[in-house]
User: What shape does this take?
Amino acid sequence: MPVLASTPVDRMNGPYPRRWWALLVLCLSLLIVVMANTSLIVAAPDMTRDLGLDSSQLQWVIDGYTVPYAALMLLLGAVGDRYSRRGGLLAGLAVFAGGAVLGAAAHSAGAVIAARAVMGVGAATIMPATLSLLVATFPRVERARAITAWTATSGLAVAVGPLVAGWLLEDHAWGATFLINIPIAAVALVAALFLVPPSRAERQGRLDLVGGVLSIATVGSLVYAIIEGPHFGWGAGPVTAAAVAGTGLVAFVLWELRHPQPLVNVRMFRLRAFSGSMLAVLMFFLGTFGALYYATQHLQFVLGYAPLATGVRLLPLAGAVFAGAALTGVATPRLGMKPMVVAGMAIGTAGVLLLTRIDAGSTYADFLAPFLLLGFAIGLSVAPCTDTIMGLFPESELGVGGGLNDTALELGGSLGIAVLGSILATSYRHNLTAAAGDHLPPAALHLAQDSVGGALAVAQRVAADPAGGPQAAAQLVAAAHRSFADAVAHTSLIGGIVMAAGAVLVLLILPGRGDGRRPQAWLDSEPVAEEVPAGSV
Assistant: This one.
């Protein structure tokens, strides 16, 4: 066997011998893509202080990564199918590392947001490439296990990101959280040349660029509206973006239905296994990412944990992800995917609803059970959904399949953070105004209402002011903590209800075992189908 992996997968006589090593490279690449978001959660306070970020700038430091990441995945997945999936992975890793270099050297909010956008472009290339290469490299009988490992890596990154960032921030500035990505990306890039075999679709045809542009406009505008509207008000920008997203979606569907070689065969959404799995991924990450977003803030700002301590306390979530992944690997082939997915969504809903018990006297112990349930739910249900989605795509469209799966994941996470984050902020603002509005001047009240971190900053000023003093500062801190804890409980109730509704919809949409239908002619206007077990695709 040659040292470099140069033989394409479709030219091999049997399974690729080094496929499990290749999976390790793909999971490493996935790890840094997810860590780029989760590590920023604990680095945000240091960045805010150092760069003087306001709430809008901080939001776009986070979401400058999300918009290109979500908007470009579908088209870049199709480009990888046509030209080279491994080439897409290598290019994405190089762009991602370049963005990390820019981020570490940035000294202004605009520069950091631009660097994060560059990293988002790299991530949009990496993410669908990892999934399409996995499916192309592994034989059908091993694919479910490989996808389970891929999913578990994503869950691991949720906990490892804050842990690594917290460790770095103990002795380094926030720029180190960007720099850590560079050696990991370099190792993954070199290892891919030796361990990941080339792969691309056999079918040659013109790339559907119009469909690609419409998908970018639709998803990008939708994500922008989701981010900007709930947080900063439905002004002209978010409303226009929402209108563009709606118009773009209609135009995209009409174009794809008429195109002889569409970017996406939109008729696939008639398949209950496909539409149910896509909905499950979106709804699941809406609830879990939103809950983790504000639970992590509570650990830092209310319970006072340092970044490293916060990361350590998220580790049980990672362990629970692996436990759920181990169980689903054994149970899904026997029970089918529908029971596992619905059970996972129900467990995740229970985890979010447990956060309604949070109050001003809560400790980390009150967060442990929700973290365990959310992690277990991720491991239990996401892998069967991803395996089902990818199993419904032909070999020539694996990158598109990966792009759709990952777009649903990212849209769900963006919705969760934006919508639940907006509910949290509104509830916190109302609670704090009722508790401390009569005791603060308007300017100080406005800053304290912006976030719990802002309230703590105001309390420091009050403590140093002779007109205030330590006692008044302590009262403001207590009011902010109580207001945020009550906001967490209120938001968790709404998030739990949304997840429960999603679980019911998925239960109704997903077919039972043996009821899934898979198209025979992917480009025909008439959807011809054959019976396949829903739990085995």
Summary: The beta strands are 516-519, 529-532. Confidence is low (pLDDT under 50) at residues 516-537.
